[in-house]
Specification:
single chain, rod-shaped
Amino acid sequence: LLMRMKSLENEVSKRGMEITSLQEKLALEREISDDKNVRVDELQHEFDHSCEVLHNEVAALNMKVQDKDKIITSLTSKINDERERRATTIKEIRAKSEQSKQGWQSELSKAHMQLQEKRGEVESLQLQLVNMSSKGEFDAIK
């Protein structure tokens, strides 16, 4: 019985050492796990901060894009207004040019008609001269 007790004591001692060893390993694993959890928390914090910074940068870029879009819209409107103003000016110039052209054509037509009338008068006078000359009326003047 004593031997049996001694054997059991040895077994209990052996098991106690195993338990102590396992408890030490468990404590070490818990410490490693705690360190890893701390590192995970640190990484999560860094990630969250990076996301916040990125979100702020994206928001700032969106604001700049909106500002640039407003500028582009304004410039496009000004360009369209200028094109419309120029088209109107060109139409006005063409209309005035056409009026001027018609005025000159009218003046030219009047001058042409006056010229025709004067030619008619000259031809009439020439006929009178020929008639007078053939009748000898010039000889009487001499």
